[in-house]
Amino acid sequence: MTYTASELLAVSAARLLEDRKIVFAGVGTPLLASVLAQTTHAPNLTIVLEGGVIGPEMAPGRLPISTNEMRAARRGVLLPSITQIFLYAQRGFYDYGFLGGAQVDPYGNVNTSFIGPPERPRVRLPGSGGACDIISHCREILIVTTHERRRFVERVDFVTSPGHVDGPDGRRRAGLLFGRVTKVVTNLALMGFDPATARMRLEALQPGVRLEEVREHTGFELPAPADVPHLPPPAERELAILRTLDPERTFLG
Predict the structure, then answer these.
(1) 216 burial class (0-12, 13-18, 19+ CB within 10 angstroms)?
(2) Three-state secondary structure call for residue 54
(3) How far is CA 184 from CA 55, 69, 82, 159, in A?
(4) Domains in the chain, ordered, with CATH?
(5) CA–CA distance, 250 with 253 (Å, rounded to integer)
(6) How many whole angstroms separate alpha carbon 22 and alpha carbon 123?
(7) How far apart are CA 3 and CA 115, in angstroms?
(8) φ/ψ of residue 44, rounded to 5
(9) What is residue 152's DSSP assignment?
């Protein structure tokens, strides 16, 4: 069964989520992947949305494009304030946080602020929103993005959201007492982090992808095991459910 890069990314991200956990998901691919996981292997996964929703049940074909839409709250078990949503994060209640990013460096620091020098940036980006709070307080952070050399850089132009900062002790020195970036999933590969150095390392390749292709699209050294495994391709059932969730391809492109 054929699939697109967007579908591959959503399925791969969904597979990282375990049942009976809580995920703080943004709209787009993170929410799509969270609902897919909930519909397949993690029926007891609780979804949290920044707009003030805990435990919604998303209607297929009606996924919100904003966390402030009323359909984002469909059958939610709790509708707290935005402030309360982030207070729960500070208290360590969320197992996963989902993030994207315009730039990601070897330590998992994310830039969504600007590209270029701060005094004369070439591109202005949306900024943090809740991303800095999510990466700072959720217990595990999953970064989901397309794999391009311009995104995977040795040093981000601005640290909007701190990953491991500059090494294994970087978060503690920055005052972040728990939580860490654990996985980076792209349309080319799955990456983790070396506990000794806190730098990104390759864990698996997407179906049909070569190691040389990943390194060609990565702007820093990316260690890899001697024999790099390949992730299994999306199953027909996963793709069928995914396409039911987003029939208009609002998020799948």
Answers:
(1) exposed
(2) strand
(3) 25, 28, 27, 17
(4) 5-245 (3.40.1080.10)
(5) 6
(6) 34
(7) 31
(8) -105, 20
(9) B
Within 8 A by CB and 6+ apart from 125, the residues are 102, 111, 112, 113, 114, 115
CA atoms within 13 A on the CB side of 61: 4
Along the 253 residues of the chain, how does pLDDT read in single tens digits?
799 999 999 999 999 999 999 999 988 899 999 999 999 999 999 999 999 999 999 999 999 988 888 899 999 999 999 999 999 999 999 999 999 889 999 999 999 999 999 899 999 998 998 899 999 999 999 999 999 999 999 999 999 999 999 999 999 999 998 889 999 999 999 999 999 999 999 999 999 999 999 999 999 999 999 999 999 999 999 999 999 999 999 988 7
Q: Which residues are catalytic?
A: 50
Q: What's the predicted TM-score (pTM) here? A: 0.94
The strand pairing partners of 24, in sequence order, are 48, 97
How many other β-carbons are positioned within 10 Å of the β-carbon of residue 245?
23
Name the residue type at position 128: S
CA distances from 28 to 44, 64, 100, 245 (A): 21, 8, 10, 12
> Is the separation of the CB atoms in 218 and 149 below 8 Å?
yes
What does the CA dihedral 252, 36, 137, 20 come to, rounded to 10 degrees?
180
Q: What angle do CA 225, 178, 175 make, to 5 degrees?
A: 110
